[in-house]
Amino acid sequence: MRVRRCGALVIEPNEIPSLDIGDLLSGGDGVRTRVEIRVWAAHLDEYRRVSPAQAQWLLQCSAEYWQDLPADADSRALVHSLLALELLVAEEVPDAETGVGPVSRSTPGEGHWWPLAAIHHRHSRWQGVDSVTDMERSQLVTAHDLRQRLGSPPPAVPDQGPLPGQIGLPEVPASALESLGRRRVTCRNFDPGRSVSMAQLAAALQQTFRAHAQLEPAPGLVFLKKNVPSAGGLHPMEACLLVQRVEGLAPGLYRYHPLRHALTPVVPECELDADTARRFLAGQHWFVDAAVLVVFVCRFERSLWKYRNHRKVYRAMMLDAGHLSQALYMAATECGLGAFVTSAINEVDIEKALALDPLKEGPLAICGMGWRAQERTTAELDPLQGAWPAPGGA
Ligand SMILES: Cc1cc2nc3c(=O)[nH]c(=O)nc-3n(C[C@H](O)[C@H](O)[C@H](O)COP(=O)(O)O)c2cc1C
């Protein structure tokens, strides 16, 4: 048997402090620190703890070239322990009967990712997180909490006073587009009983995810034209819908087809229940009653086809998501609905429901839309009174 290490990994010395009463009593600061060595790999969902000897072995082991098992028993045991941790890959021996092989057992799914981006993506995903409970536990819920616990943030605008040479710009009347933008307010108060119409949903998808044209400059290379820009014109983002209340559409999961402007039902891998939206939204109950959730599923492989091992591509895919979310906000606002975007989502739970392989396709954000409730119970940032007119209509 020969081995190599997995392609994308980072070795992190992590310092863990603990209280040392003896040191405290003898006048020290009472803090003892031990170093735990963590290995983060792009193909694993959890980091692995390793010993210094295991870390050293990984550092001298190639990801490209197979190497024979070491001769001495201790080193062999080390290699086997790293194989068990899935940080080393074994070359399968040739089949004695068929003579086929040797065959490499490649590290699954690393594709053309820049290793640090792949590791960041894989390990920044959440599973089963309730972000609201976490915020409550750390007392970081209200603006008052934030100010009290974190102090003042850097100023909203760095230079408040007049600056030498500063040129004032003319006031111009707001266009229809700008007026619409001023009415865009992140909605955290949805009407749990009111459905959106099929036309409203269609309008929102048409303005965001629909491809209005396609171009094939070379066989098999197709560029889509949408209302939003996309890095490389690749448009890797797909819309997967969790429909809760749309007239004429059964609740459930759907995938949007950007060329046919059509929805295909998706059979979920796990049963959907009343708690699915809350689970997807990491406990953010103020978004749960949106009539539709639009999960932004990025087909990473589409962008990585062009931007191989590229340091910027993950950032570019995030920016694509930002453009789509703004377009969806505007479309929803235009048809009288409230909308939101959040990146605080349980990616792993969503991947499970949609049967996604996380380094090939994965959720980057969730947008939602629906009718606003009559009453505002959760805070919204609406100083322009674009969504919540002042009582008495002032
Ligand atoms: C990338 C991104 C992530 C956001 N995530 C959350 C979130 O997790 N929860 C939430 O309540 N709002 C979230 N928001 C909404 C912002 O809080 C909101 O845009 C901000 O407070 C300004 O309010 P406005 O959108 O009404 O102008 C997010 C917005 C963006 C752009």
From TrEMBL:
Its domain of life? Bacteria
Q: Where are the transmembrane segments?
A: none
Q: Which is a Pfam family this sequence falls into?
A: Nitroreductase
Q: Which residues form a coiled coil?
A: none
* Domain Nitroreductase, first and last residues per copy: 182-371
The record's listing under Gene3D superfamilies reads: NADH Oxidase
- State the NCBIfam families in the record: antibiot_sagB, SagB_rel_DH_2
Tell me the protein's name: Nitroreductase domain-containing protein
